[in-house]
């Protein structure tokens, strides 16, 4: 039968099932197909913290959402247009996100009485009719995906359990047909992945093709969809996750600085992938050390920095707490050290596989004494590469530890990334000390040449960096306060005051090297500015598009550098009648902006382990625009309409 092909500009698909159903692999393969086709895309993997939650239960549901389009997009989408649910729990866990009229494809095989009870259903929702039923509210397709898969692969002699495991490939084949995805990349992937087990390889490929053929021949689907490739700037692209981009950025930082890289770390979700990736690149002079704990990892990294390497440690919020004393030691010794914090929900163990950006104040102040460090935050998965290179530049140039604040949404999400030209990357000069730098005059008038480890560069205030073993440049550093210049231990009150201030001044001096902020204010008439940092870039940008499409003006500024702030930030803030700061915390950047610039910002705060939703944020921005000029909104989260906020003249 001839089937209709309908043109769409974008689609959001969510694959959901039990954590053993291969939903992450399915979503990843669909993403790779879309990337190969040339669509712009953004993804959001969402999975349990448990290695294997109880099968068929709500806590065990794993999902993967992919948003792909024929134009530039900024987020993985607020709500799916299509939900593929492999069991009752997957349906129930994701149904609240579905809008009426959207498509739901359900594998009916696992809707047994036992599994319905596990998911909290009293009756089978697939069999309900009438008002409020799935069949009435949604474009519902009930298919025995498991049964069709088992039938399709029976020639390979697999057990029923092993055969059923290929149902995710059947679902992938069906969705690949529905949206015109290229199949070659998935077949090549399966051939390579299961090359050593031919029966499993052939069964998965057969299931994938069977899903495609089912879509092509069944009367259940009479329409397929076409989403044309997106127009992008010329260049070579690849799909990349935030953690992978960050790892590549660290490699690039080592190459551009000419420094060997030493990663001292301890595995922790969601940062572990960076260790896994860097361990593959020894040819770039990279040494990876999996320590016995967080403290040992950062201690080894700092020791490597002392010895002339680019010292790196990776972790999440709980690890930052453990590393804090050694980070303070890095501040005192003024050595380049990169601390990568891939933030997750907290406090304590918190939500290991969910996202949050609530470590900003910990990064700013989470050490004893006055211990300032620069803070850099990427805004998208691909931007993790550039942020890592920038953090390396700051650490090496200014001789300071640098905190790089990513988060789980960036780490696990992915997008098309234009591979940069190496010639466009900054050259980073470590400028090791190689000779004596101080002439000292004795009381008798005789002079000697010495090496002083705390003399400072006039432009950057950085101290010299001498590799241990350099003849004549023996020196002492450590955790006790050092005397200005000569670096000997000093308990002098005036010296301590001076050294505290000079270390702060060195961090402040970084602002001189930062480019002007980019203000996205197309009309130039906006009275409201939305200021963000980190992974809120996508939701803020998408919300701003919605607001402008509705005929209102709004400006957007996004911060990469959180300490020090860019020099022009204060002047920009003064130009607007109201400033909103959306954050996945309870207002940490808001606190810093209020304290630094005395601006009464409006906080939009959410701490639920999920990315901000553009539609809800757009409503809040719209309400603030409507009230601008004679009212100031108090803080509220997305669960409270800004129209219901208390206001004052």
Task: Describe what this molecule looks like in 3D.
The protein is α/β, with parallel strands linked by helices and 649 residues long. It is built from 21 helices and 25 strands. A seven-stranded mixed beta sheet has the order 11-10-12-13-15-14-21, sandwiched between helices. Strands 3-4-2-5-6-7 form a six-stranded mixed beta sheet, with helices on both faces. Helix 1 runs parallel beside helix 7 (167-178), helix 10 crosses helix 11 (272-278) and helix 12 (294-306) packs parallel to helix 13. The radius of gyration is 28 Å and the shape is globular. The N and C termini lie far apart (67 Å).
Keywords:
35% helix; alpha/beta; single chain; 25 strands; globular; 6-stranded mixed sheet; 649 residues
Brief rundown of the structure:
This protein is α/β, with parallel strands linked by helices and 649 residues long. It has 21 helices and 25 strands. The strands form 7 sheets. The chain has a 7-stranded mixed sheet, sandwiched between helices. A 6-stranded mixed sheet has the order 3-4-2-5-6-7, sandwiched between helices. The protein has a 4-stranded parallel sheet with strand order 20-19-22-23, with helices on both faces.
Q: How are the secondary structure elements laid out?
A:
Layout: E1 4-7, E2 10-18, H1 23-37, E3 40-46, E4 61-69, E5 82-85, H2 88-95, E6 103-107, H3 113-119, H4 134-137, E7 139-143, H5 145-152, H6 160-164, H7 167-178, H8 184-193, H9 198-217, E8 223-226, E9 237-241, H10 242-257, E10 261-265, H11 272-278, E11 286-290, H12 294-306, E12 310-315, H13 317-333, E13 337-343, H14 360-365, E14 375-376, H15 383-398, E15 401-407, H16 408-412, E16 414-418, E17 438-441, E18 447-450, H17 493-509, E19 528-533, H18 537-549, E20 555-559, E21 561-563, H19 569-574, E22 578-583, H20 588-597, E23 602-605, H21 614-627, E24 632-633, E25 647-648
Parallel strand pairs: 1-8, 2-5, 5-6, 6-7, 10-11, 10-12, 12-13, 13-15, 14-15, 19-20, 19-22, 22-23
Antiparallel strand pairs: 2-4, 3-4, 9-16, 14-21, 17-18, 24-25
Helix pairs in contact: 1-7, 2-3, 5-9, 7-9, 8-9, 10-11, 10-15, 12-13, 18-21
